[in-house]
C-alpha cells in the first residue's frame, strides 16, 4: 500500500454519520459544562468534533506514568501522577479515562471521591482547589486495556499485538491507558517508567534515561521534556531489535523494530537523519532532542502515527510515510491543533512535505502531483468537503484533508512564490513552536509574510466544498 497510514474506505463509511454535528451540539448542552456556580470543571474543552475530549478548569504540566505490562495475560498495572494547575476555583473536575479499574485516587495526598461516566472520570477533591493552585493527582489502576473505535471505524489507543501492544492515541485513544486531559489544547511534559518481561522492549517518547533488569523483568525509563499532546504519547511493547545512535546534529536516535519487519524497514529507517536534516533546512530547527522509529507488526491497526519524537508504524514504512511522520514533528506536534476541525494543518502539511521530498529527490514535481489530483472529476470524493471543514470526527483522516490540504499549500506556493512560501512555513513553525496554531492564524501569517491578498484563495481552497476552478 502506498499510504499505509491511511485506512481504506474512510470516506465511504464516514458519509453515513454526516449528522454528527447536530448530535454533538446536544451532547455539549447535556454535559452542562461549568455554568453559573463556576466551580465545576467542564467535561470537555468545547471541541465540536469530540465534545468530551479534554476538560475545563485546569491544565496539566506534567504526567508521570509508571506502568507494568504482561503481554501474555494482557494485564496492565498503572500509576499516573499528574501535576496540574487550576485555572478557576474547582470543587470538582474531570479527567478522561476509559475502561481500566481504578484502585486509588488522591489529590495532594488526600483521598478524593470519584465517579465514572463514559470517558469522564469525575473527581471531587476533599477540599476545593483555589484558582491558580498547583495540585497533584495520583491515580492507581489496572486491568486489560483495549482500543477505542473512532468515528471513522479505526482503532486507536492500547492495541494488543502477538508480542506486546501497539500504542497510538490519535484522536482519542490516550484515555485507554492513562487518565489524561485528552485534548491537544493541553500539552505537558512526560516521564515514563515501564516494566515488561525480560526480552521485551517498552518504547515511549523522548530520551531513554536508562533500563535495568531484575527478577526476569526489565524497566525502561523515558523522558519527554518538550510539551506533548496526550494523543502523541506511546508506550509500545514488543520483541524489538534496538538500534541507538546520535546524529551529527546531536539528536539521540532510538529505533525499535519487530524482527519480522526488519529487512523491509532497514533501508528506510537508515534515511531518518537525512530526512530530518532536509526538513530542518525547509522548516527550521528540529524541535526535539530525540528521534527514532518504532516499527511494529499490528495488522489490525493499518496506519502509522507521528508519536512525538518517535513515530510508530504498524508495519515497515515506505520512505514517503517516514517523510510524512517526520514532517508532523514540526506540523502537528510542535505546532499543535486547537481544535480537531483544523486537522489539515497537520495532514495537509505532512502530505505536502511528501510532495516536496519527491520533487527535490529526483521524483515527480509537486506541480505534477497537483495536476494529477486536480484531474479527478468533480464527483470524486476528493472534493466532497473542504480541508478546513471536515464536518465531523468521522472525516478527519480522509482525502480532502490530506490531499486537498496539500493542494491548498501548493496553490499558495504558486501564488506567493517559493521564497515567500518557505518563509511562511518557517515563520509558522517558529512563531507557534511548542504551542498551538489555528487556520485563521495561518491565513493571516501567509498574507503578512507575502504581502499578497489571499482571502479568495483560502476561501476557495480551504472553506468551500466542491472542486475549485483552475488556479
Ligand atoms: N495522523 C496519522 C498520519 O497521518 C494517521 C492516523 C492517526 C489515522 N489516527 C488515525 C488514520 C486513525 C486513520 C484513522 O500519519
Ligand atoms: Zn499524517
From TrEMBL:
EC number: 3.4.11.2
SUPFAM superfamilies registered for this protein in UniProt: Leukotriene A4 hydrolase N-terminal domain (SSF63737), Metalloproteases ('zincins'), catalytic domain (SSF55486)
Enzyme category, top tier: hydrolase
Keywords of the record: Hydrolase, Metal-binding, Metalloprotease, Protease, Signal, Zinc
UniProt-listed Pfam families: Peptidase_M1, Peptidase_M1_N
Entry keyword annotation includes Transferase: no
Domain called Peptidase M1 membrane alanine aminopeptidase: residue spans: 320-461
InterPro entries per the UniProt record, alphabetical: Aminopeptidase_N-like_N, Aminopeptidase_N-like_N_sf, Peptidase_M1, Peptidase_M1_aminopeptidases, Peptidase_M1_dom, Peptidase_M4/M1_CTD_sf
Domain of life: Bacteria
GO biological-process terms attached to the record: proteolysis
Ranges where the Aminopeptidase N-like N-terminal domain occurs: 61-232
Residues annotated as signal peptide: 1-36
UniProt GO molecular function: alanyl aminopeptidase activity; metallopeptidase activity; zinc ion binding
PANTHER family tied to this protein: AMINOPEPTIDASE N, PROTEASE M1 ZINC METALLOPROTEASE
Family stated for the protein in its record: Belongs to the peptidase M1 family.
Protein name listed in UniProt: Aminopeptidase N
Organism: Streptomyces phaeolivaceus
Amino acid at each position: 500500500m502506498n499510504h499505509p497510514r491511511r485506512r481504506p474506505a474512510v470516506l465511504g463509511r464516514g458519509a453515513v454519520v454526516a449528522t454528527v454535528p447536530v448530535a454533538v451540539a446536544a451532547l455539549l448542552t447535556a454535559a452542562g459544562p461549568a455554568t453559573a456556580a463556576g466551580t465545576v470543571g467542564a467535561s470537555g474543552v468545547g471541541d465540536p468534533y469530540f465534545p468530551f475530549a479534554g476538560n475545563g478548569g485546569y491544565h496539566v504540566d506534567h504526567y508521570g506514568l509508571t506502568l507494568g505490562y504482561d503481554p501474555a495475560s494482557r494485564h496492565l498495572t498503572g500509576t499516573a501522577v499528574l501535576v496540574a494547575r487550576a485555572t478557576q476555583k474547582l470543587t470538582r473536575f474531570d479527567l478522561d479515562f476509559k475502561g481500566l479499574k481504578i484502585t486509588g485516587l488522591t489529590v495532594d495526598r488526600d483521598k478524593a471521591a470519584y465517579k465514572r461516566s463514559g470517558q469522564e472520570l469525575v473527581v471531587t477533591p476533599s477540599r476545593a482547589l483555589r484558582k491558580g493552585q498547583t495540585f497533584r493527582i495520583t491515580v492507581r489502576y489496572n486491568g486489560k486495556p483495549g482500543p477505542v473505535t473512532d468515528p471513522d471505524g479505526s482503532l486507536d489507543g492500547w492495541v494488543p499485538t502477538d508480542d506486546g501492544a501497539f500504542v497510538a492515541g490519535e484522536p482519542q485513544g490516550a484515555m485507554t491507558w492513562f487518565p489524561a486531559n485528552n485534548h491537544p489544547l493541553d500539552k505537558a511534559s512526560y516521564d515514563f517508567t515501564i516494566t515488561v518481561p525480560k526480552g521485551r522492549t517498552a518504547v515511549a517518547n523522548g530520551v531513554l534515561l536508562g533500563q535495568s533488569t531484575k527478577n526476569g523483568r526489565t524497566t525502561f525509563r523515558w523522558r519527554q521534556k518538550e510539551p506533548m499532546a496526550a494523543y502523541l504519547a506511546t508506550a509500545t511493547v514488543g520483541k524489538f531489535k534496538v538500534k541507538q545512535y546520535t546524529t551529527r546534529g546531536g539528536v539521540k536516535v532510538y529505533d525499535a523494530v519487530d524482527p519480522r519487519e526488519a529487512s523491509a524497514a532497514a533501508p528506510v529507517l537508515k534515511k531518518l537523519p537525512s530526512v530530518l536534516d532536509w526538513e530542518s533546512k525547509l522548516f527550521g530547527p528540529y524541535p526535539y532532542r530525540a528521534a527514532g522509529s518504532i516499527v511494529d507488526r499490528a495488522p489490525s491497526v493499518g496506519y502509522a502515527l507521528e508519536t512525538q519524537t518517535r513515530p510508530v508504524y504498524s508495519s515497515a514504512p515506505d520512505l514517503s510515510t517516514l517523510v510524512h511522520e517526520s514532517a508532523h514533528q514540526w506540523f502537528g506536534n510542535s505546532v499543535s491543533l486547537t481544535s480537531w476541525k483544523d486537522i489539515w494543518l497537520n495532514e495537509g502539511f505532512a502530505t505536502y512535505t511528501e510532495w516536496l521530498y519527491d520533487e527535490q529527490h529526483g521524483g515527480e514535481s509537486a506541480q505534477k502531483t497537483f495536476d494529477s489530483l486536480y484531474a479527478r472529476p468533480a464527483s470524486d470524493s476528493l472534493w466532497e468537503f473542504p480541508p478546513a471543514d471536515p464536518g465531523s470526527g468521522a472525516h478527519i483522516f480522509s482525502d480532502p484533508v490530506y490531499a486537498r490540504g496539500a493542494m491548498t499549500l501548493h496553490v499558495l506556493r504558486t501564488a506567493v512564490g517559493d521564497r515567500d512560501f518557505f518563509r511562511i512555513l518557517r515563520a509558522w513553525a517558529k512563531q507557534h513552536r511548542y504551542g498551538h496554531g489555528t487556520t485563521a492564524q495561518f491565513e493571516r501569517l501567509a498574507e503578512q509574510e507575502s504581502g499578497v491578498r489571499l482571502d479568495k484563495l483560502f476561501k476557495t481552497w480551504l472553506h468551500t466544498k466542491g472542486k475549485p476552478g483552475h488556479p
